[in-house]
């Protein structure tokens, strides 16, 4: 039987940095809610068995009754409420996954340009290494600066990568990492960090400069430009 893989798509934002009362994941991008773009990619992926959507408690019913049926998202098996922190929301999603799930793919709903290839590659790498993330190597020169605003050193950009999502993990490993993080009072900005602090390997899969995270108004404008370029065949 094929390995069961569940995608957990987290959409817990409240739109504070967007300067709007509408949570950023529900803002329109190309005429559809932002989170729908990412959900469609996981819907289309042949290796994804189910999708768990994690949203604020107040938005659960709206997603179940409006977002999911109106966009034909048949793989979304559950919509669950998030927690106070991102890692709490991820954990709620992972716990809601089918009990036979072996690999979990975590993705931020406000990264609308995730591709089928990214999903496939990060899962393939996880099959080998147990954990893998999509990331983008730094292109600019990076400086370490002190609290007074003076350069301390120039860092080697060959060793510096910008973490993105999707990130994929063996489910048992991810649950163990979350439990250890909670026990130690760790507040993690991504799930890979919880694996790293256990001194376990996390592989890198090449990301894309198009795989932006939309959190500010200027990001939404950039997203519209990327979407238009993709629709016109200017980028893949």
Provide a quick synopsis of the model.
With 236 residues, the protein is an alpha/beta fold.
What can you tell me about this protein's structure?
- With 236 residues, the chain is α/β, with parallel strands linked by helices.
- The chain has a single domain, classed as Alpha-Beta Complex (Spore Coat Polysaccharide Biosynthesis Protein SpsA, Chain A), CATH 3.90.550.10.
- The protein has helices spanning 34-44, 60-70, 86-96, 116-129, 171-183, 191-196, 217-231, and strands at residues 5-10, 28-29, 32-33, 50-55, 76-81, 103-108, 131-137, 142-145, 151-155, 161-170, 203-206.
- It has a 7-stranded mixed beta sheet with strand order 5-4-1-6-10-7-11, with helices on both faces. Strands 2-3 form a two-stranded antiparallel sheet.
- Strand 4, helix 2 and strand 5 form a beta-alpha-beta unit.
């Amino acid at each position: 039987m094929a390995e069961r893989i569940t995608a957990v798509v987290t959409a817990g934002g409240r739109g504070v940095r967007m300067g709007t009362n509408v949570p950023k994941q529900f803002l329109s991008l190309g005429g559809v809610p932002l989170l729908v773009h990412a959900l469609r990619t996981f819907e289309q992926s042949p290796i994804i068995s189910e999708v768990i959507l994690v949203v604020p408690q107040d938005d659960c019913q709206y997603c179940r009754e409006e977002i999911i049926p109106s966009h034909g998202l048949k793989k979304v098996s559950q919509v669950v409420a998030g927690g106070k922190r991102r890692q709490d929301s991820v954990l709620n999603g992972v716990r809601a996954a089918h009990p036979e799930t072996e690999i979990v793919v975590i993705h931020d709903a406000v990264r609308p340009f995730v591709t089928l290839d990214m999903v496939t590659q990060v899962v393939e790498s996880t099959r080998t290494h147990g954990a893998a993330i999509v990331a983008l190597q730094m292109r600019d020169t990076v400086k370490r600066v002190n609290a007074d605003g003076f350069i301390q050193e120039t860092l080697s950009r060959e060793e510096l990568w910008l973490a993105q999502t999707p990130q994929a993990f063996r489910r048992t490993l991810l649950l163990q990492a979350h439990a250890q993080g909670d026990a130690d009072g760790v507040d993690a900005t991504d799930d890979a960090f919880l694996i790293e602090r256990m001194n376990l390997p996390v592989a890198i899969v090449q990301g894309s400069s198009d795989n932006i995270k939309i959190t500010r108004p200027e990001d939404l404008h950039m997203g519209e430009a990327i979407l238009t370029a993709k629709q016109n065949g200017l980028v893949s």
